[in-house]
Amino acid sequence: MDVRTENRPTGMETHRKRILTGDRPTGRLHVGHYVGSLRSRVALQDKYDSFIEIADIQALTTDFEQPEVVAENVHQVCLDYLAVGLDPEKVTIFVQSAVPEIAELTVFYSLITSVNSLRHNPTIKTEAAERGYTSLSYGFLGYPVSQAADITSVGAHLVPVGDDQLPHIELTRDIVRRFNALYGPVLVEPQALVGECPRLVGLDGGGKMSKSKGNGISLSDAPELVRAKVKSAVTDPQRLHAHDPGHPEVCVVHTYHRYLGEGARGSEALADFERSCRAGAIGCAACKENLTRSLNTLLAPARERRRYYEERPGFVKEVLAAGITRVRGEAALTVSRVKSALRLVQF
Ligand code: TRP
Prior knowledge:
Order of helices and strands: HEHEHHEHHHHHEHEHHHHH
Number of domains: 2
Distance between the termini: 29 Å
Largest sheet: 3 strands, parallel
CATH superfamily of the largest domain: HUPs
Low-confidence stretches: 1-12
CATH topology of the largest domain: Rossmann fold
Bound molecules: tryptophan
CATH architecture of the largest domain: 3-Layer(aba) Sandwich
Number of strands: 5
Strand order of the largest sheet: 1-2-3
């Protein structure tokens, strides 16, 4: 039974399912985010009541030494969203720290979350290893609990994410089931919606594209920077001369052609590039030039929209303020139901 939908006052949004997803504002968003999730969010915004969270507190669980970087990127990530075509008339964009109800829910959920389940969370383990953490802060270990609070605060039904986030959605589902079984049907159990595109590899070919590794192409990069970055991309290491036969399956540039360039447009040209590369008929430099052109074509509308919103910082602030107001209203209802289920006094 979907308690949240039943109890919600009748209004325009009651018939549409809700989705919630978000990003940590540790840097500007890159083309990996675009193929991995932003593109599908734009498609989903017409079908679902969409909530998009800029998870600044979660960003501070790893970047607590640079609060000014996180602060700056709250605004930049919001510009990235608007730039790719998320429409503030259709989506609710908000900032995690501006919704204290989420912090309250985090505390309540922590009562029924085992420390072991967090310590064995594969994504936490991978992130901790990548960052070389020898001991974990309470906040970092517990961020999946606050993510459960993010998701359930508005009663989201679906959570569009990359597969690295699946352990967190599983934890959210566990918390919801446990809470509802113990205290009554209060929370909505969400489902993950995993994108079809794998995490995009970085320019250095040494793992996925990531802000912290600096191996990505940002959505806001200028055309000349995109060209320079593509030039620096790792290709087939066995290919020393332009006429050597290439191996597109190991080439970063080919992967980008597939997901961001000709392949993404369903064009025959992808197969042509592949054949020419294997035959040694096209060199890496020419292939990169083609990719640069495709990327700059893809990014042109986003650059234009970004420029429009950059010139209107007041508007961006209003978008966030409206989003925060809406989410706080929803989250306050959830907190109130959770508190009464827990028999906590409310004045
Ligand atoms: N953990 C997510 C990431 O690093 C960001 C995030 C925060 C999120 N809260 C969320 C994703 C809620 C989905 C739902 O990308």
